Every structure is written in C-alpha cells, then in structure tokens.
Amino acid sequence: MSSRKKTLLKVIILGDSGVGKTSLMQQFVNNKFSHQYKATIGADFLTKEIIIDNNKPVTLQIWDTAGQERFQSLGVAFYRGADCCVLCFDVTNEKSLNNLTSWKDEFLVQSNVSNPQDFPFIIIGNKIDVDDSKKIPSLQKKLHNITHNQLGGLNYPVFETSAKDSINVEAAFEVIAKMALQQEELNAASGGDVNDDYNDAINIHLDGESSGCGC
Amino acid sequence: MATTQSTNSEEAPITPKKSSMLLDPNEYNKSDNAANSHQRNDSSYSRNFSLIDMYGEEAASSPTGPDSNDHGSTSDEQLDYQMLQSLDEFSFGEISTDHNVSQQTITQIRDTPTPQPPQHDEDDDDEDRLEIRQQYVIPTSMGNETKILNSPFDRYGFRKSSTHHGFTLEEYNDWFKEYSEYSYRRKKKWELLMKSHGLPIQEDDPVPTRFPPKSDKVKKMIRKGIPPEWRGNAWFFYAGGYDKLNRNAGVYHQIVENTKNIHNKDTEVIERDLHRTFPDNIYFNESIDANGNTLTVPLHSKETPLIKSLRRVLIAFAHYQPQIGYCQSLNFLAGLLLLFMEEERAFWMLVILTERIIPKVHSADLEGVHTDQGVLMLCVKEYIPQLWSILGTTFEGERLSDDQILSKLPPVTLVTSSWFMSLFVGIMPTETTLRIWDILWCEGSKTVFRFSLTILKLCLDNPEFDGAKHSPGGEADQIELFQFVQNFPKKILDCSNLVDLCFKKIGGYGFGSLSQDEINKCREFVSKQREMMNYKRRLSTKMTSEERYTLMNSSDGQLDGNNDIHDVYGFHRPIMGGVVWNRSISNKMKKTFAKRNSSRSST
Predict the structure, then answer these.
(1) Parallel, antiparallel, or unpaired for β A43-52 and A84-90?
(2) Which chain A residues are Cβ-neighbours of B396 within 8 angstroms?
(3) Neighbours of B125 (CB within 10 A)
(4) Which intervals carry biased composition (Polar residues) (chain B) (predicted)?
(5) Residue A200 lies in a domain
(6) Considering only Cβ atoms within 10 Å of each terminal Cβ, which end of chain B, N or C, has fewer?
(7) How far is it between the farthest Cα atoms of chain A?
(8) Residue A214 lies in a domain
(9) Which residues in B lie closer than 8 A to residue A18 (C-beta atoms)?
C-alpha cells in the first residue's frame, strides 16, 4: 500500500482571523477568489498536486485553520506531522503582524516537531492589493525588525501576496512545497542531522525575491 | 384554546394583572438565581463544575415528556403580551403610523416575485427598533412557489447554488419542485392543527404568534417541518422565548444602548465577521441584486439592515455573556435567527441556546465542544460500531482504546465540532438546517446528537465511502475519511428523508431512541472525566516545556499515557432501560454485533 503512495506534504496555514488564510488556499488550489468565503470554523483542508524541482511530483495537503484564538484548543491534533507552517498576516492590520510570534510558538508547542530550531516556517503578508494608505505604516521596517531579529527568531522567508489579484501566491507555495519536501525527507531519514545549508540557501534566495516585488 | 389553558393552569398560576411580566414570583427568583450563579461559576474559570450544573439545567427546564413541558409561556398575561408583540410586528396597516410603508410590506409579503434587495429607505441614524420589520421569508403559497423556482435565490434570500454548495442549480430546482408542494401540504395541515387548538389563522394576520402546547401530535408535526414563514414565532414559542423575554423586559435595548460605541477585542472580530456571515444572502450582502448579479459597488459601502442588527445582537451578546464574549460561529446562529425574527428575540434565543441547549460550546476554552464531541464519539461507538472501527483512531492511524477516547478525540471530531458550534448552519443546505432547527428548539440538544449520528451513519452507508472503509488505519485513510465527512452533509438536500432516517425505526436508523436523559448522563460523565484529565495536565504543565519534552521522549510518552487514561462509560445499562427496540432492528443489530465480534476475534 505504501509503495503506491506519492510524497504527501502537509502544510498548516496559521494567522489571525480575517487575514485571508482561506483565500490564499483557494487561490492556490482552485485559482479563484471570492468575497464570499465564510469565517472558517474548526479546520478544513485541500490538496493539490504539483511538480517541483527536478520533476518531482508531490501532493500538498494544505490545512486552513480558524483564526480566532479559542479554536486552538480544537485543532491541535492535525498540527502533528506537518512539514511546513505558513504564518499569515494582513498588511493592513498591525496586530496580525505582531501576533506572528505567538502563532509560531503555539505551533511548535502543539506540533511537537523534532527540530523546533529549524522547522521550516514561511511568512505571508496578504492583501497587498489594498490601497497603500490603509497599509501598516513603515511596514518594511517593522517586518524587517521581526524577521531579522536573531533573538525573536522569525528569520524566515517572507512573501507579500494578494490572494485577490493572485500576486505572488503561486511563488509562495512553490517555496512552501520545497521547504516542506526538505522537512519531509529529513523526517523520513528518521530525524538525522539538520541541514542548515538548505535553509540558508532558501533565505538568501527569497530575500532577493521578496524585496524584488517592491511593495 | 381550552387545551392550552387547562394544561397551563397547574404549572403557571395566574398572577394578578399588575405583575404581568412575571408568571410566578417564586419561579422568577429561582431562575434569576440560577442565571446569576451560572455567571458566577463561569467568571471564575478555576472552578470547572459549572458545566455539569448546566447540563442538569437543560433536563430541568426542557423535559422530554410531552406533558411536562414548559408551556407556562401561554398564561393569560403572556397571551396579552404576545398579542401586543404581534401587533407591533405583524399587523400590517392597522397600527402602522406610516401607511405607505405598511402597504409596501404587504405587497412584499404577498406578491414578492423574487426576494427584493433590502430597502434602504430608513435613515441609518434613525434606528427605531419598533419600526415594522421587513418580512424576509417568502410565505408558502402556490403563487410564490413558482416565483421562487424561477429566482436565483431561495425562499430565505440565499443563493440557491454556487461553487460552495454540494449541488447544482438544476438539482436544487428539481428538489424544490417537489418540496414546495410538500411545504404547501404541510402548511394546510398546520392550519388544521391550529384550528383544532382554537388558534385559527386570521386572514389579516397570517403568521401566528401562539402555538399548540407540546404533545406527541405537535412533535410529529414539527418533525415534518414548520411552515417557513411561521418558523421564527414557532421556534421562539417552543424554546421558551416568551418566558425569557418577559423576565428580561427592556434588558436587550438597554444593553444595546450601553454598548453603542464600545470597541474591544470582541467587537473587532465581530466587525470582521459581519460581512462574511452570509455573503451569499441578499439580505446580508448589499452588493447582490435581485437577479443574482454581484454589483460592482465598493465593498461594504452600504450596510443592509440585517448586517446592522447582526452587529447589535452579537455585541450585546458578548456583553451579556462575558464568559463567552464573541465566538466565531455565533455569527451564523444569530444571522439565521435574524432572518426569522426581530433582533431582541434573536438575542434571547442565542442566550437560551448557550445557557441551556449547548452550554459552554462557545466559551473561551470551548469546553462544551470537547465534552459534546466526547459524548458523540461514545455514541458512535455504541450505536454505529462499524463506523467506530474505522474512525476510532488518532490522526496517525493508531487505534484508540476505550479509555483513550476522550483524551485523544478522533480526527473526525474536528469536523463534527463545527456541527455543534454552528448547529449545521453552512454545513448543510439551508432547508435541511432549518428542519433540524425546527426540532432542536422544541426537543433540545439531543437533536444535535441524533442528527450528527444520522449524518455519520449516512456516510458509512454511502457507496462512495467504500474506499475509506476497506482500508482502516493509516493516516491517509483518516484524511480521506475526514474529507468525506466534511463534504458529505453539503449534499443532503432531501431534508425530509434525513428526518425520516433519523427517527424511523423501520426503514430508518431509529436514533429517536437516544434520550435526552442519556445525553445528559453521558455529558456529565465526559465532563467529569475531562476535569480529571485537565487536572493531571495542569500538574504536568508546571514543569518547563523542556522538562516535559525530555520526559516525553525518554519515557516514550509515559507522561502522556498517564493523562490518557479515564474511566470507561457504560452505555448499555442506562440506555437499554429507555430504548424500545423494534424487534427486527434488534435482531439485525444482534446479527451485526455477532458478525463484528466474530470477525474481530478472528483477526
């Protein structure tokens, strides 16, 4: 049975209520956006098969979660076995940016991953289609403070996206898939040594890309 | 009329006219205390017993027997009050101050071809809540049915079908053609029932505010569906809404007044959820026109009256029940209520629901959700053992032993949790949800369990479920199962069939035999067990996370293992006393059991 299995990569999307987690997932998996998504209760997931790197087909299983704090007590079991965690915020909502650290901590506590120090996280700032005047003032600086603070520990790749206009969503998930695959291989090798080089490589690669989108 | 009053006179002594708001001063005090103590219990979170107390409360206040129901709400004084209410709301053209408005309302109710986008003629600032409320539900009548058939929206203003639904527009219309005839026939039967109880339907006031007291006959009628346009009043009546409202006259409007300009964590989330409650309903989304086109007006530029009501109700509720505050999914409950009744009533219905029917389900720790999922899983194990053998595992596919069920709830509970939190709103097609709500308000929380079991059993019996069935165990199978259970309810358009399956002993699953008493006992058991487990967990969390981490790894989850163990609930003893098994079903069940046991022992 297991020989027939494709590589399944489990991705968890976390973030405050209303930052656009469902929209991001829908945009990536079904290439559509709607103003008609209802608030997510509990958790939901979709799968999508993609081909990454050297023609390797993988199945992404993307878990969309409820953003309200109290729902965390429900949806912890499925964090386990995650291969990548996406931390989302809304570029017009500063609180959602400041909460990224708690989302990450919560994830690490609940997922019980074997390598909390270098588990692959990625940060997505969504809703860049919104008018500049509504965006968090000096966002880049604040983002930089959060992601380049060695002590705070959110030095992860950042993507600024618009699920509405389908900007950067595909690119973000491609990186998510690569990072997840790396993690999955790491786990498959029964928790051997962590490959720091790879994560660094991703970081460097992305820094260029995310600043390139010029938001 | 005679029936109503004779049954009531014993329970609700007529009090002097002056205290027309109170049925019985003693009862008033009693319940007032109960309400207070309820709040006290919850405000101190360290004391965890409040849930158990509350589960007693539903049993006490909504007994299941047909003759012992709380229809104290129809004493003379109350009838007066109800009539006043009904005058305020439903007598078009009689006491209206503005003749034009009332005329317009009448035309809308009687002849609306398609649901109209909400009227914005009232000025935003002038929020006089005594104004005549627009009737949002298109009444059942031969003419209306064909008009609904040709409209992109259903009777309640929801888009009939979209990509989020589990069926196409054609499928909806095919179902509706038949169902609208059924609705029409049922309405005629209800009119007869009303007449036989001395409550004939008046030409000029076609929506009754008083209903026959609960009885076996009435229960049967309700299970077959309440006429859509009567639902708001009927739910309110059978849930004990009048009683609640009378004891709290003016309270809602006072809270609304007091919370007018507040901003806090709850209001922030509420604001974000207002427009994503029913984005596919014309009364909640100003950018849909009557033909179903989405207009390109700036998003949320103009709020519909129901969005405003929804905001007020949710903010007032968060204020009134601070131990709950605002919990996502309350927006769906309040939203659906608002389509059927004015906001003060919707508010009290939310209170009744969260205090009595599904206590703590929306509280900050969602303790009630965990408890009810534990109860549901124990029920699945008891009543649908074949399904339990598939879903009774952890996410990793590891089998759950009897003393682990409550501590490691199976993955499927992530899906069923939302059934309990939103009471099937958005989970199933609208009419199906409404049929369950008809029963829920009259019969109480056991309804949620009965229908959850019915849906799960339907999943099991579905041929497409085979894939998951043949290969139990393993994470991939759990995921498949999860997805199936998640998507399946969206397709259950045939609501009458669902109700029949739930209750019918022959040709159905007979879950009507699952009594409220059993649910209460089981809830009490689960909540005590959870309390014990949480206590153990709290002890272990006093360690630092590193200590815990090393301990868990070194001792192969020994710490975790200790927390897992709880008592095992014995269903058989209490339940067999209350169950009247049909002989053929019990034989069938015996065979299944025997088969299952033999297959289990062979493996």
Answers:
(1) unpaired
(2) 80-81
(3) 5
(4) 1-10, 31-49, 99-110
(5) no
(6) C
(7) 55
(8) no
(9) 269, 272-273, 276
Domain that holds residue A139: 7-189
The answer to whether B423 and B437 have CB atoms below 8 angstroms apart is yes
CB within 8 Å: B327 and A17: no
| H helix count then E strand count, chain A | 6, 6
Distance from the B43 Cα atom to the nearest Cα atom in chain A, whole angstroms? 16
pLDDT in tens, A5-26: 578 999 999 999 999 999 999 9
- Which architecture, in CATH terms, is B240-357? Orthogonal Bundle (1.10)
Interface residue B265 vs chain A (CB under 8 A): no
Q: How many domains is chain A partitioned into structurally? A: 1
| Record: contact A109-B280, CB cut-off 8 A | no
Listed by start position, the domains of chain B span 129-229, 240-357, 364-553+566-602
Inform me whether the C-beta atom of residue A38 falls under 8 Å from chain B C-beta atoms. yes
Give the pLDDT score at B117: 47
Tokens found for residue B603? 């493996």
Does any domain span residue A169? yes
Angle at which helices B305-320 and B251-258 cross, to 10°: 100
Using the 8-state DSSP alphabet, how is residue B355 labeled?
A: I
Closest Cα in chain A to B325: A70
CATH number assigned to the domain comprising residue A132: 3.40.50.300
| Partners of B393 in beta bridges | B399
B463 falls in which pLDDT band (50, 70, 90)?
confident
Residues B30-79: tens digit of each pLDDT: 444 444 433 333 333 333 444 555 675 564 444 443 333 344 333 444 44
Say if A5 is an interface residue toward chain B (CB within 8 Å).
Answer: yes
User: Across the A/B interface, how many CB contacts are shorter than 8 Å?
Assistant: 94
Alpha-carbon torsion (B293, B168, B116, B344), positive or negative: negative
Nearest partner of A140 among A153, A128, A122, judged by Cα:
A128
* Partner A contacted by B406 (CB < 8 A): no
Query: What ipTM is given for this predicted complex?
Result: 0.83
Structure tokens of B367? 């303790």
Residue of A nearest to B407 (CA): A77
Q: Which B residues 297-336 touch A at CB under 8 Å?
A: 299, 327-329, 331-332
pTM of the model: 0.78
Q: Looking at the domain assignment, is residue A202 inside a domain? A: no
